[in-house]
Amino acid sequence: MLQFRASVVLKELIQTSPKRSISDIIRHKKTLPNAYFYSAAYQDVRISKLKTVCNGRPFIQPLAGIRFLCTKTEGAIDPAEPVKKDESVQEATADKRRKAGILPSLEDLLFYSIAEGQERIPAHKFITALKATGLRTGDPRLKECMDMLKVTLKSTSDGVMLDRHLFKKCVQSNIVLLTQAFRKKFVIPDFQPFASHIDTLYEKARKLSGALKSFLCLFAYMDHRMMSLVLISVYSLHRHTVGDTKVPFCLQSCVKPLKYAIAVHDHGTEYVHQFIGKEPSGLRFNKLFLNEDDKPHNPMVNAGAIVCTSLIKQGAGNAEKFDYVLNFLKKMAGNEYVGFSNATFQSERESGDRNFAIGYYLKEKKCFPTGTDMTAVLDLYFQLCSIEVTCESASVMAATLANGGFCPITGERVLSPEAVRDTLSLMHSCGMYDFSGQFAFHVGLPAKSGVAGGILLVVPNVMGIMCWSPSLDKLGNSVRGIQFCTDLVSLFNFHNYDNLRHFTKKHDPRREGGDQRQYTFGPLDYESLQKELALKDTVWTKVSPTECNEDSSTTVVYRMENVGDGN
To answer: Which residues form the Glutaminase EF-hand domain (predicted)?
Structure first.
């Protein structure tokens, strides 16, 4: 069985064994968090005292600073064992666990933290608390939980209240994710204050006025007052939306880093850069100009993007190539909206004389792979520029890049690490047309803009952002988008070099309360979360069995240490 035992020194001091079943502690009339005596509340205790709790059985308060050992011998119940569907078996297993004295379930601990001493809670209280963590009820990872909640409420007499058993039934399928959310174990622990800052920056940028400048006649009729912003944090999938987030718009040049990523994913960096360079050009994005090796300077200018288009699904027809890229982008977007604007495609092709000139120049310089049909490549190039997204779906694409190629919604690996690294590198140095140097200097983050008004911004390992406003500056970048990105990095330490030692401090949303770095985020296992929650201010670490003179063949030993200010 799982038991707590004092050290040899403590035994000699008090001449008794403080073995005590945790299940008895849980049944104590006090609320659950107060029932644990292994906490930092006894910092000033100098000697152990006998406590009489539950049926008159003694319990020993630990000495301050004394290390306790938890041994798990053969035959102990594993808290991470799979849940059986048969209810009678579940009850028997629960009774066995209680008798074994193991830690309470995460579901129970979560219920007590929300209930605040009450025996039942209204469903809306759980939903409100959930939204306060930054998670959405529409999060696909919470689908089982939300579906079960609806079914369970229909079966209750009042359709509102949940007791502990009903609550546990609803949340058990997503308990690890929910526990991390309520324990603020995500990359941005205090998401609501962070979102409030984002709203302020958005409103400031939205007030900017500027003439609507468009490189396509089709875009000249768009409402220049429109603006939208969506950000999605990696893993936790916190999503914050502001403005006209459901309005579709074309990716235009924002598709360039995405198709480059696809090409590198399929062929590798070395092959792709046989045809395309890696240097910023310092020139307009649509110049007829190659580097000294007669290659396009990089895949973020038109010449490089046209050559990059020729590398995708070589030998296939345009229809197959387009479907391949479209489906790839849908995977990056977590199957959210990705469409196609035929009107934009026709407008691109009718006004594409400069791109045709670039295409023939590339053909003359033998920049394409052998056997390439240049006119077919240009047709596909125009089609890919006409792919339509919303701010919501494009932000998931950005979050996939921020997440190392894993889509944060589906959890699927879409891009190889090599493709993500190379794409972000070129977005950082070449992604903002001939404003790229200034953007890298002032903002210091990978980004790509498009003449439809979008800016795809990536904060690696933190979040992906799509900001859209069709009012452009003379370089083809969104006026309001540039302002938002600049203000974002002025307030938060997202610039690549903000974290240098002795640098001027900014807000760090990755720290809880702005004081303490949160090192623990991402997937955790059930057992470790259970222990951390139950024991509050303590952490568990495996230690050598020889430290407690136990037989290493049958015992797993954990040391429980007080960590003071915490992890």
So the answer is: 107-189
Residues with Cβ within 8 Å of residue 336, at least 6 apart in sequence:
330, 390, 392, 393, 396, 409
Count of CB atoms within 10 A of residue 526's CB?
A: 16
Q: At what angle do helices 143-155 and 123-132 cross, to 10 degrees?
A: 160
For residues 4 and 237, give the distance between their C-alpha atoms in angstroms, rounded to a whole number: 38
What is the homologous superfamily of the domain 196-491 according to CATH? DD-peptidase/beta-lactamase superfamily (3.40.710.10)
Please give the structure tokens belonging to residue 123. 């469903």
Pair of tokens at residue 268:
């590798």
Distance between CA atoms of residues 478 and 536, nearest Å: 48
- The pTM score is 0.71
Cα dist from 517 to 142, 192, 194, 492, whole Å? 27, 18, 16, 15
The residues spanned by each domain of the chain are 106-183, 196-491
- From the number of C-beta atoms within 10 Å of its C-beta (0-12, 13-18, 19+), residue 66 rates as middle
Secondary structure class of 315 (helix, strand, coil): coil
Whole-number Å distance between alpha carbons of 156 and 58: 40
pLDDT tens by residue, 36-74: 333 333 344 333 333 444 444 444 444 444 444 343 434
For residues 518-546, give the mean pLDDT: 48
pLDDT score at 2: 42
CA angle 290, 291, 296 (to 5 degrees): 50
**DSSP state, residue 40:** G
Assigned CATH topology for domain 106-183: Recoverin; domain 1 (1.10.238)
Cβ atoms 517, 493 nearer than 8 A: no
For strands 57-60 and 538-542, give the pairing.
unpaired
